[in-house]
Amino acid sequence: MKHRIRAAGIALQNNKILMLRVRDQYSGEYWIPPGGGLEDSDVSSKQALVREFREETGLDVTVGPLLCVREFHETSSDRYHVELFYLVESWRGELSLVNLEGLNDSEYIQQVAWVDVEDLNQYKVFPADIVSTVLPLIQAKQFATHLGSYVQGENDDVNHLD
C-alpha cells in the first residue's frame, strides 16, 4: 500500500470558509479545504501547506496551529492518507487558479471560493464533519500539540515546523 501525507488549511472570514470544488471519477464532485501532499522539496507540513495554498488559491498564507488529523484509505489507488489540518491565520492576494496551469491538479480542481458555513450541508464535503467538529475546535481555541519537524543529523534539534 502507498502512503501520502497531506496538509490542509482552514481559512475563515465572515462566517465563510475557503474551499475547493473538486471532481474525480471515483467520488464525483465535492468540496475540500485547500492543501496537498508533501513533496521532496518541503521541509515540513506547514511549508507544504504554504506552497499548496499558493498553487491552489493564489494566496500567500500564514499557517497557524494544528487543529486535527484525519486518515483515510483511497481504495481506487490503494493509498493510505494522513491529513493534517491547520488553522490559516492570515492571507494576502487574490483568489485565482492560474498557478495550477501545467500542474497535475489542473483538471481535478474546478473552483476556489469562500463558501458560507451554513451552506456546507448542501454539498458533499470532506472532511464530512468539518462543521460539526473542526469549526468548533477553532471557536474553542482547542488546538492539537504538534511536536515539530526535525531533520536527522547535524542540527537535529532545529525545529523546521515554523
UniProtKB/TrEMBL annotation:
Residue span(s) of domain Nudix hydrolase: 1-136
Q: Quote any Pfam family the record assigns.
A: NUDIX
Q: Which CDD domains match?
A: NUDIX_ADPRase
From which domain of life does this come? Bacteria
Q: Which UniProt keywords apply?
A: Hydrolase
CC cofactor: Mg(2+)
- Mention one GO molecular function: hydrolase activity
Tell me where the signal peptide lies. none
Q: List the protein's name.
A: NUDIX domain-containing protein
- Give the classification, highest ranks: Bacteria, Pseudomonadati, Pseudomonadota, Gammaproteobacteria, Vibrionales
